[in-house]
Amino acid sequence: MHVETLRIFCDVVRHQSFSRGARASSVSQSAASQAVRQLEKHLGAQLIDRSKRPWQLTPEGRQFFKGCQELVERYHELEAAVRHRQNPSGRTVRLATIYSVGIHQLTQYVGRFRAAAPGAEVDLQYMHPGEICEQVLSDRCDLGLISFVTPRRELAVIPWKRQSMVVACPPAHRFAALAAKQDGVRPADLAGERFVAFDRKLPVRRAVDRFLRRHEVEVAVTAEFDNIETIKQAVDEEAGIAILPEPTLRREVRRGTLVQAPLVLPPGEPPLVRPLSIVHRSNRRLNPAVTAFIELLGADAPAAAPPAAGTSAPGRTAMAAGARQRASAPTTASGDHSSPW
Hints:
Low-confidence stretches: 303-318, 326-341
Order of helices and strands: HHHEEHEHEHEEHEHEHEHEEHH
Number of helices: 12
Number of strands: 11
Number of domains: 3
């Protein structure tokens, strides 16, 4: 049986959906369904009980899925080992990241990694947040850099950075003078303002909306976009103000095309931040290059960053130790089928 067929079956089960599993495997839904039926015919056993809604794995399906996970992962390890023998000077880290982490920042990390591990490479791919977890879970990428990640049992999440969210506006906007006068903008000052928002499907939009509701502030949304660069352009063209991560505005602030204003909150009020995390598939052995890259990222993580609710933010030493532990941990199969975010 072809390894690709086994991979499709694993993706369907992990996502508990033929359509989402097909997307993760980069095939059509009908192709994914046909692959599973071919497996069932080959084995002479039903793997998925389609009579139930939602469908469920049969006992034979659970047993086969556990073995398939181990087999597919072992195949990719062997494939990587053979390629490593052909190029013994190094390995490749497959990294998927959201656009707004910043090309300049990641280029610096990649440069430092190559200097520290001669011969090692980083295959860097920028993509939409919703695609990153699928790429990692289907083993098409080793690591992902993503914000506001939704916890999932099959996804290991390493807190990385917590970026302050600030108000962005044109230099002629009244907030520019207000920020200089009172060291920032209070939530109440935002009431009624024309507002350029993130697309409502994105977790960052939901975080900003919760922040505004908590402070009983209503804004007039003039446009919605799914990426920060387009939002900054809209703000520059005076379509409205926006709330964005502070590091993503540094270039525009330096050039004087946009102004950033901190959010001034009452004492004890939690700040609005964008949490960035490193993700990889749980219970997966990490090759030495991947472990080294996690440790490199962790070297720049705040040693005492305040943790988000319900999480712990490891410092540099803890992140490095965690990466080494995952690298040496034995591979196990997870039976969790939680739905994607």
